[in-house]
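Researcher: Here's a chain I'd like modeled. Treat it as a single chain, no partners, no ligands.
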Amino acid sequence: MLFSVWSIHHDKKLWKNLSKFDPCRFLDSSGRLTIPEHFIPFGLGERRCLGESLVDMEVYLFFTHIMHQLNVRAEGTILILESDYRLAIQPKPFKIRISSRED
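Model: Modeled as a single isolated chain. Structure tokens:
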């Protein structure tokens, strides 16, 4: 059986405000992380991506290292996190200011 991950992740019956960047959709009413069954970025079953655990570990290490070493702030008054739909979903251009925590 084949299925389209894109179609599942863009199904209006499963997700609210599809075009809005909203990390809160993965939080329950008490603020705890909850991953819905229909969120399957690495596929399912025998064809599931073998690199999922490696990606989880690498993203965690990369992100925590950046947050520990650098200050990351939005450049300007409002940071609008919108995206363009092309071959892959891409964020629209935005500016951030990155500085060393030593400054």
